[in-house]
Design goal:
With 258 residues, this protein is α/β, with parallel strands linked by helices. It contains 8 helices and 7 strands; from the N terminus they run βαβαβαβαβαβαβαα. The protein has helices at 22-33, 45-52, 70-84, 107-135, 158-176, 209-222, 231-241, 245-255, and strands at 13-17, 37-41, 60-62, 89-92, 139-143, 182-188, 226-229. Strands 3-2-1-4-5-6-7 form a 7-stranded parallel sheet, with helices on both faces. Strand 5, helix 5 and strand 6 form a beta-alpha-beta unit. Helix 1 packs across helix 6 (209-222). The longest helix has 29 residues, at 107-135. The protein is globular, with a radius of gyration of 18 Å. It starts with 12 loop residues before the first strand and ends with a helix.
């Protein structure tokens, strides 16, 4: 059994959470250019309004919210239901990244990271999934990271949050495959965004947000579950996962010089 993709985006109802910058913004703009109806969500309403101007009349909804706030998410989804009757694709891109190592570990930052990066997507899925199950159709796409594959430097909170997203998506896929609801687990490598601009080390295989958006939307159209890119980097990290720990840590220490 193979899950369904989205053949064409024109007219599809898409909720992009995390649409005000980076990968989310690039995805939103690409979807608008292809004729999708896009609900734009993030905390930065001014930026959302700017992106909405790219769309035609009635093509966009601007729904500012914080993914850690249950009430704001619920109100946002009600707005979409009232306007469009539902969504065809939930694209959750919002995330938080603060570089952390053991010598500067901050539990408050870790808690906020888990709340935004793991519980945030879970909240959105819990909201939107019941209607998709009733319709026996729909798509759930969650942006994780290759940092979730295995432990990497400066990702003491971010990495675990993304590892949990991988597990969450795997469970969703298994449970939802017979229902007609498709799941897309998205694992980017390094993408040039406001978040990665914090890094003070060389980022291998760095790509633009526009390239990332192309990879994501192409994967969703094809019905892919595991959407990872750029392949030359993500495949290498997948390979590292299967190595014995002594070899894995030796490679990381040798090639990640930070």
């Amino acid at each position: 059994m193979k899950q369904q993709g989205i053949d064409q985006f024109p007219g599809k109802r898409v909720w992009v959470i995390g649409a005000s910058s980076g990968i989310g913004e690039a995805c939103a703009k690409a979807l608008l250019s292809q004729g999708a109806k896009v609900a734009l969500s993030s905390r930065r309403v001014e930026r959302l309004n700017e992106i909405a101007l790219m769309g035609q009349i009635d093509q966009t909804l601007v729904i500012p919210l914080d993914v850690t706030d249950d009430v704001q998410l619920q109100d946002g989804y009600k707005t979409i239901l009232n306007a469009w009757g539902g969504i065809d694709l939930l694209l959750f891109v919002s995330g938080m990244y603060v570089p952390l190592r053991a010598d500067n570990f901050d539990i408050k930052i870790a808690e906020k990271t888990i709340d935004a990066n793991l519980l945030g997507p879970m909240r959105a899925v819990a909201l939107t999934l019941p209607e998709m199950l009733k319709a026996r159709s729909g798509h759930i796409a969650i942006v994780g990271s290759v940092a979730g594959y295995s432990g990497l430097p400066k990702a003491l909170a971010y990495g675990p949050s993304k590892a949990a997203i991988i597990n969450f998506c795997e469970n969703l896929y298994y449970d939802l495959l017979p229902t007609g609801v498709s799941v897309h687990m998205i694992s980017p490598g390094f993408v040039a965004t406001e978040a990665t601009a914090q890094n003070d080390f060389e980022m291998p295989a760095l790509i633009t947000a526009d390239v990332a958006a192309q990879e994501i939307l192409s994967g969703i159209q094809k019905g892919e579950f595991d959407i990872h890119f750029p392949k030359r980097f993500s495949r290498f990290l997948k390979f590292l996962r299967i190595l014995p720990y002594p070899i894995y840590f030796w490679i990381v220490r040798r090639f990640v010089k930070i």
